[in-house]
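ligand=zinc ion
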Amino acid sequence: SSSPLTIPGGTRQSPINIQWRDSVYDPFLKPLKISYDPTTCLHIWNNGYSFLVEFDDSTDKSIIVGGPLENQYRLKQFHFHWGAINDWGSEHTVDSKFYPAELHLVHWNAVDYPSFEDAVMEGNGLAVIGVFLKLGARHEGLQTLVDALPAVRHKDTVIEFDEFDPSCLIPSCPDYWTYAGSLTTPPLTESVTWIIKKKPIEVDEDQLEAFRTLLFTSDGEEERRMVDNFRPLQPLMNRTVRSSFQ
Ligand SMILES: NS(=O)(=O)c1ccc(S(=O)(=O)c2ccccc2)s1
Ligand SMILES: [Zn+2]
């Protein structure tokens, strides 16, 4: 489409709809190994798009390896996308179904590239784990995050946040889809190996509502609620989505 959100000449843009029956089981895909060190957690901040939890990525203390990846990738940050109501909010869809929210854990290839900024520009520079959130039971691990949100209500506010292990937000079921894609916010670079977990995590209504109390706007500006911060679906073009499961 000619919308500004599709970069000209883009052949591997994200997000996409994952048509379950069109995904191809790849028996050579390895299990994804996740090892995060909670002491690498630094702070939470509202960047005006979402709220992000950032990590110290100066060592290999928090990494993922295996899955579709050639080598290990370092955890940089995680953030969410959500809707104004529970009928939509995720970036990816499964058989055209939206989830109310989606978690993205962003990692970069520190083996091949000297910095995150360099990795962002390379086809195998980033690996993002996507986890769907569905309405259900309260998620105790998420609650620590939710309790901190009032302190980052406005754009460009930040608070210290430590000892958080984001693996508590990742389903134990090993099944995932994977495909070659892009960042879903500017600079939209085509540098992401997407790893989308098949199983969602459950969160309750109050926790989703807490996300919706955040603001896109800075303190003193006319308030605009931070909701619907997801990018429209992009064309699959010449790509195959592989599954780690049959
Ligand atoms: N939604 S997403 O997971 O695709 C995503 C968008 C932006 C990022 S980034 O924080 O890595 C980043 C990268 C480059 C410049 C600024 C931020 S990750
Ligand atoms: Zn994202």
